[in-house]
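Re: weekly structure request thread

Next one in the queue (528 aa):
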Amino acid sequence: MTLASTALTGLDGAVEHLFEYPYGCLEQTTSRVRPLLAGDALLDAFDLEAFEKKNRDQIVRDWMGSLSTFWTGDGFSLWEDGDHTNPYVTAYTLMALAEAEAAGYDVPQPLTQNAIDAAADMVRNRSDRPDYYSEDVWRDTRAFMLFALARHDRALESEINWLASRPPTSVEGQSHLLRTLLSTEQPKRPEVETRLVEQLRQQIRVEATTAYLEAPESDDYGWIFSSDVRSTAFGLTALLEATPSGDVRQLAQRMIRYLMDRRQQGHWASTQENAAVVTAFQHYVDAYEQAAPDFSASVELAGKTILEKTFQDRSLRTAATTIEADAFPTGRELPLTVSRGGTGRLYYSARLTTYTSAPQDALDQGLRVERTLQRLDDDGKAVGAPVSTGNKTVTLESGRLVKVTLRLTSPTSRTYVAVDDALPAGLEPVNEAFATSAQGVLDEADTGSGRWWGSFTHTETQDDRVVLFADQLRAGEHTYSYVARATTEGTFEHPPAEAEMMYRPETRGHTATGTLVVAPSGGPAAER
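Done, posted below.
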């Protein structure tokens, strides 16, 4: 339970999600550090150990230090040591570098200047769009690049004029262009700014007590992470920068309510959505929460006071408490009562977190995942038929090598797909340096190695899991295989292998939970 005198109380789960999201592409690590660049006042709203001054500075410095490993020579790649430049991620990283510099950090040079020059070149080359970007997506991306460049005081006047005369059709592109016009010191274009504000307002959909903006339905926009939540956050930010008037405030309150309603488990679906909403909420607070509150608040659960706090003066600090479920009786309703006495607006957030150890059945919500194990002999040759790991028990001898094969099937093309194969405690992935003929069993697997387009293009082998990523996943079946070894004896739960679109996680799937038994080598238990 959280209480606050600011709308930012709803962002605690979003910031936690940014720091706990398990993958590490450049977009995700950049989204993770952006709240840390917003200043002490914003960070006071969140009681996270990562936000201690020393830790915060180190996290930002580590992020800036890692950027050179994503540099391709003409932009930034989505993945470390990648050789494919991602235009949108280049603009996003460049914007974050401007935020870091504004926050007082020494940004890496000459890398930052090289990124500025590379983005300027991409914007100037209007016809040099990537093949997988549609014309509209490229126009949105160029608008975002212009905004990122403007944050570095690099205004490309001719390109701004060109795009202003041919504005993007999407909410997000229009928002980028409007913010570019507002941030540049070049001659103002009030008629263009007014037109963009009106276009954004005309696209706002009001339903009951909420209001929102829609992203285009075309799958093409998946390349730049578009969604209704992010479009609403981008549009809200741009409108608040342009004209934070009274009538906009009413719309803004409805848009805030829509964004709050779209949370699941305290946060939004993707790292892009969470970072965008944090920025929008910060602009809302700066625009409308100037009056100093003076009130006391309390929360009762089942008639028992669980939280009390007095709020005086303008502050982003919150009051929070966590109550274990066993502190209250079971089997009946537990009324929750929030009260306030005094002047000012009270914001509250209540989250119920539950856990289950029950085995999971297989799930297919647009992605089907299958996993098999196949035993290998001492020479690395396959022994017997592959065995599915879901809803059954697989027994291996300690020390046995196995070939693990993952099969991912999608009925249509997808963008930015992650496959996470968590291993049971008794099974460990074999290091890539494993120098036996066992490596030969992988030759026939479609790993996507050496290709950027269409299948798995980046892999991470960790101690307890193997993770695969596909920037673009073509329709059909994709396979990946690796070698693992049965190590610790015992009976272990084999977690499901999971797949999801990282920026549209409602498209997902996983295998069923299985059981792995690692028996003593040479013992009486037969492998099965």
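The two ends are 49 Å apart (CA to CA). Residues 433-438, 444-450 have pLDDT under 50 and may be disordered.
Next request, please.
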